Amino acid sequence: MSIGLFGLAFVVMLGMMLVGIPIAVSMAAVGIVGGIAAYGMPFMDSIAPVVWGVHNESLLTSIPLFILLGELLLRSGIADRMYIALSAWLGRLPGGLLHTNIGSCALFAATSGSSVATAATVGTVALPSLQKRGYPMRASLGSLAAGGTLGILIPPSVNMIVYGSLTNNSIGKLFIAGIIPGLLLTGCFMLYIAVSALMGGNAMREPKVPMAEKLRSLVHLVPPMVVFGIVMGSLYFGIATTTESAALGVIAALGFVVHSGKMSRELLRTCFISTARVSGMILLIMTAAFILNLTISLTGVAEAMTKWVAGLGLSATGLILALIVFYLILGMFMDVLSMQVATIPITYPIATALGVDPIWFGIFIVLMCELGLITPPVGMNLFVVHGIRPDKGGIEDAIWGALPYAAIMILFTLLIMAIPQIVTWLPAHM
Q1: In sequence order, which residues have a C-beta less than 8 Å from that of residue 289 and are 6 or more positions away?
Q2: Cα gap 335→369, rounded to integer Å
Q3: DSSP letter, residue 240
Q4: CA angle (148, 154, 158) in 5-degree steps
Q5: Which of 70, 108, 327, 381 has the fewest other C-beta atoms within 10 Å?
Q6: CB of 163 within 8 A of CB of 174?
Q7: Rg for the chain (alpha carbons), in Å?
């Protein structure tokens, strides 16, 4: 298959997605048609082992476990109490509760693994209070949409698991690599809020909370911190695999749900159904992605693309800069998961052939996916926070509110390009 034909197939696949055909169907159709065109009907015989191999991979068991972990913490009310506790500590900063939005998103991201779930959860808790206290809706929606993107950068992250599965890289190292960038990006968001509040001359702050009350509120931060410590500690010290650490996190979350008095058959039923629905969608898309990858590998497209890019004389830096533009445009029209599984089989071998560290490239891909979550017209987090705003205004508030954070993400990507050790230092010490 020539590069031109592959480009045509890629455009057709994107077109199918944009007209509403399910992502998995679009990818599988292009993969199957391309494989049959190249090898005839015998190609179909090679699909069954690929599908079996995908679903027989124990690593993918961690996906439903991490999703269940987030569901348990969400449904038990732990997120609500976490927001109240953080507001006591961060509310006096210039920008007030906007800092609490970012901090709560970061902390919930450390247990959820999903950006959409993070934005929806924290937004549901925060927006009524923000409106009641007179915070500008544009700034409120922007901080929640951007804070929600931390859900796929701060580990555990479902999108890192997808990347690791598609590229055969260590999920544990990817998780560890996301810690420092996740914390730094959180700090950049909060710095922007403080500076913009001070420069605007209307730096809203919350009333001062007595230190005794602040200290009492810390108990509400214990569940997410303990769960994060168990998951990441067991990975960092080599005590457990990714799947085992996810299971340990679920057990810890169940313990906190029982302690909160919210444990019930109905709560478990809701959590299990939601987990099954999201996990089924993700695994179906991954199955289709592996079918497409089979076609790409058998037809030699990845090798041809690598040679073509190498022939252009691009350096690793030049390639990454080109990919920033590519993913910025693609993220305007595709959701995060489909963008990952459709492009990683092509961009990953090219990047590694030019000497880009595979773990660093995984964090780069996640950052680009984060960018896609808040860039219109298909930024998922924009629709999530718009859908839960209490005043039912237009979506343009969410779009304009999130644009400064998109610029921060691009600048942060340039920072980790200049200082790759921000990403690679922790994994190197595992």
Answers
A1: 27, 166, 341, 342, 345
A2: 8
A3: S
A4: 85
A5: 327
A6: yes
A7: 22
Band of pLDDT at residue 125, cut at 50, 70 and 90 = confident
Cα separation, 355 vs 56, in Å, equals 32
- Asked if residue 305 has pLDDT above 80, the reply is no
How many CA atoms within 13 Å lie on the side-chain side of 205?
11
Q: Cα separations (Å) of 234 from 77, 82, 171, 230?
A: 26, 24, 13, 6
3-state secondary structure of 155: coil
Give the list of residues 6+ apart from residue 226 with CB closer than 8 angstroms, or none: 252, 256
Could you give the CA distance from residue 33 to residue 39 in angstroms, rounded to a whole number? 10
Per-residue pLDDT reduced to its tens digit, 208-262? 889 999 999 999 899 889 999 999 899 888 888 888 999 999 999 999 999 888 8
- The conformation of residue 220, written as its DSSP 8-state character, comes to G
- Composition of the chain by helix, strand, coil, percent to 5: 80, 0, 20
Which tokens go with 219? 């108990």
Q: At what angle do helices 137-149 and 396-418 cross, to 10 degrees?
A: 40
Q: What is the pLDDT of residues 127-162, one digit of tens each?
A: 888 888 889 999 999 999 999 999 888 888 888 988
**Once rounded to an integer, what is the mean pLDDT over residues 288-295?**
82
- Three-state secondary structure of 344-382: HHHHHHHHHHCCCCHHHHHHHHHHHHHHHHCCCCCCHHH
Tokens found for residue 139 = 């700034």
Q: DSSP for 264-285?
A: -HHHHHHHHHHHHHHHHHHHHH
State the CB neighbour count (10 A cutoff) for residue 360.
Answer: 21
Contacts of 258 (CB under 8 A, 6+ apart): none
Q: What is the pTM of this model?
A: 0.85
